[in-house]
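Milestone 3.1: sequence recovery, worked example.
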């Protein structure tokens, strides 16, 4: 996975990037939007512009951007974390589906995975093998050396690609994406 992580070294220079990016297989965008609690289309924004707007309206609403990529829905939450809720992951993976999300911000990291309506992983990649990660749900594919602390963001995106087959494209950050509003505090509580 090290070579794949090197492909994502660009993310280590995106100092202001705080987000959850999820890949949801076997679902339509409308299903994903409804599960996240989308309230209305908000127009088109780049991820960078959505981060600024989210900061300015943090207590008012969250933002969600969706893309269709290789038969999957990619859900991007600039400075949001709804996609880390186990109940959301389980709901969007029912009937043979697969949900995989990566979150990071200055306050932490999280990877969440569910298959066929069941949570199969939920862990902070910075605490693998330490006492702080003792309550994590580590899937069998996780190896501690997969997530070196100096490259945890790049390694997390590499894990996302490895588990879903969807490569995160750097251009998504600066490309205007259809953006939807979510309820306040990062979205509807899915737990």
């Amino acid at each position: 996975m090290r070579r794949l992580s090197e492909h994502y070294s660009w993310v280590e220079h995106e100092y202001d990037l705080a987000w959850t990016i999820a890949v949801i297989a076997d679902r339509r965008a409308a299903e994903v939007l409804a599960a996240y609690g989308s309230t209305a289309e908000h127009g088109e924004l780049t991820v960078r512009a959505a981060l600024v707007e989210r900061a300015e309206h943090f207590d008012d609403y969250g933002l969600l951007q969706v893309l269709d990529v290789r038969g999957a829905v990619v859900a991007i939450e600039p400075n949001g974390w709804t996609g880390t809720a186990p109940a959301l992951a389980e709901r969007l993976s029912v009937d043979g589906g697969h949900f995989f999300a990566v979150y990071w911000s200055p306050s932490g990291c999280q990877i969440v995975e569910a298959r066929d309506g069941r949570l199969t992983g939920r862990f902070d990649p910075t605490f693998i093998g330490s006492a702080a990660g003792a309550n994590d749900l580590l899937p069998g594919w996780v190896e501690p050396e997969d997530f070196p602390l100096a490259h945890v963001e790049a390694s997390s995106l590499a894990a996302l690609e490895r588990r879903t087959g969807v490569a995160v494209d750097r251009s998504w950050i600066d490309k205007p994406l259809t953006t939807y509003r979510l309820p306040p505090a990062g979205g509807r509580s899915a737990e």
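The first helix runs from residue 2 to 7. Confidence is low (pLDDT under 50) at residues 186-191.
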